[in-house]
């Protein structure tokens, strides 16, 4: 849904929903709940399997209902954006890469990380330009360098 119109709760029984916090709060008329409670309430109402709640510069919060026996079915990931130039299109990039990752891996963690990296790539350029796989690979390489990852 666009931030100016629509209601994310109109989308029932989807595999993946990726609203931003503002859309979620508007749809539930909830300005006070924690992010975790907000995500849980939205997931309960929409009955979606997976929810990636976009939190802007604070990253994302992911919640899954795939495994009802799992006690830790949620996690948060900080933003991977180093220097935000223009956030337009970042939600589209997150949705596209998260969907592809979910289809190929069936993993919310992988989907959230790759989607967040694609969103960060989009934020770091001016305009809504399609993010290529090479862009995401370069972002992964830069994160590995920051973390001093050694594959040896």
Structure overview:
- Strand 2 and strand 3 form a beta hairpin.
- Helix content is about 45%, strand content about 10%.
- A 4-stranded mixed β-sheet has the order 1-2-3-4, sandwiched between helices.
- By secondary structure, the chain is an alpha+beta fold.
- Helix 1 packs across helix 2, helix 3 (about 90-105) runs antiparallel to helix 4 (about 110-125) and helix 4 (about 110-125) packs across helix 5 (about 135-145).
- The chain contains 5 helices and 4 strands.
Topology of helices and strands:
Elements: E1 16-17, H1 21-28, H2 35-46, E2 50-54, E3 60-64, E4 74-77, H3 90-105, H4 108-123, H5 133-146
Parallel strand pairs: 1-2
Antiparallel strand pairs: 2-3, 3-4
Helix pairs in contact: 1-2, 3-4, 4-5
- Rounded to the nearest angstrom, the radius of gyration is 15 Å
- What's the mean pLDDT score? 91
> Could you tell me the number of beta strands?
4
Outline the biggest β-sheet: 4 strands, mixed
Outline type: globular
How many alpha or pi helices? 5
Distance between the termini: 45 Å
Portion in beta strands:
5-15%
Strand order of the largest sheet: 1-2-3-4
Helix content: 40-55%
Helix and strand element order? EHHEEEHHH
Low-confidence stretches: none
Structural class: alpha+beta
